[in-house]
Design brief:
The protein contains 4 helices and 4 strands. The protein is mostly helical.
């Protein structure tokens, strides 16, 4: 039991558990953003264009339901509900496309923030220092090259 506790403590302290928890929390928040974009931004115009077609109700009836004289269902219908698959597939495509657009925009912002020549966005200090180091190394190599040629 002590070894199990020690292993868990080592796992938690290394940051694996904390990193995982942060990822889950950010994922949940990102899910809310995607849901708003999909259900409140993209789907209303799409619904207008398709005149509110509901694919969930589409099915192939293999055997119809059987009712008694009162109208109570004796046997449920047997059917292949292919419309649900179409609906889930469309949802997947719309959500996937939305995530693609959001990630693409975030990557563009990230690239722009890492560009040392772009003065409109403040360059992070580590990128700035690396750029200065690169420039110093290039200058030093040029000086050495010039010195060796003499």
């Amino acid at each position: 039991m002590k070894k199990l506790f020690t292993d868990f403590k080592e796992f938690a302290v290394k940051g694996n558990m904390i990193d995982m928890a942060i990822g889950i929390i950010i994922g949940a928040a990102f899910n809310k953003v995607i849901n708003v974009l999909v259900y409140d931004i993209f789907l209303p115009p799409l619904s207008l264009m398709t005149k509110g077609i509901n694919y969930v109700d589409r099915k192939i009836i293999l055997e119809p339901e059987i009712k008694d004289a009162v109208g109570a269902v004796i046997q449920e219908e047997a059917s292949i509900k292919y419309g649900a698959l179409i609906e889930v597939g469309l949802d997947f495509l719309i959500i996937g496309f939305t995530i693609f657009i959001v990630v693409k925009a975030m990557n563009r912002l990230k690239k722009k923030s890492e560009d040392p020549k772009d003065t409109t966005i403040v360059t992070p200090k580590d990128i700035e220092l690396l750029t200065q180091l690169k420039q110093l190394m290039e200058d030093q190599n040029q000086l050495l090259s010039d010195h060796l040629k003499k």
